[in-house]
Amino acid sequence: MLFNKPSDMTYREWLYSDARYLMNQIPKNVVEWVYEEDMTDQEKAAHPTYETTGGYLKVLDN
């Protein structure tokens, strides 16, 4: 299974694949999940979908 789809790719093939290399180049510190209980009133007003999702994805300044 790869991305929940049947695949003949082995774990070793994945480790050495271009796809894995490219995914590892994506910055990981550009967003963070903020849970509803950690949101300020201003954040709740700005992101009303928090009621459905339980929070929002905050874009970090880097």
| Spatial arrangement of strands, main beta sheet | 1-2
Strand content: 15-25%
Mean pLDDT: 92
Distance from first to last alpha carbon: 35 Å
In angstroms, what is the radius of gyration? 18 Å
Report the major sheet.
Answer: 2 strands, antiparallel
Query: How would you classify the helix and strand content by structural class?
Result: alpha+beta
Q: Total number of β-strand segments?
A: 2
Taking pLDDT < 50 over at least 5 consecutive residues as the criterion, the unreliable ranges are none
Coarse shape: elongated
Helix content: 25-40%
Q: Explain this structure to me?
A:
- The chain is α+β, with helices and mostly antiparallel strands.
- The chain has one domain (about 10-60).
- It is about 35% helix and about 15% strand.
- It has four helices and two strands; from the N terminus they run H-H-E-H-H-E.
- A two-stranded antiparallel sheet has the order 1-2.
- The longest helix is centred in the middle third of the chain and has 7 residues, at about 20-25.
- The radius of gyration is 18 Å and the shape is elongated.
- The model has no long low-confidence stretch (mean pLDDT about 90).
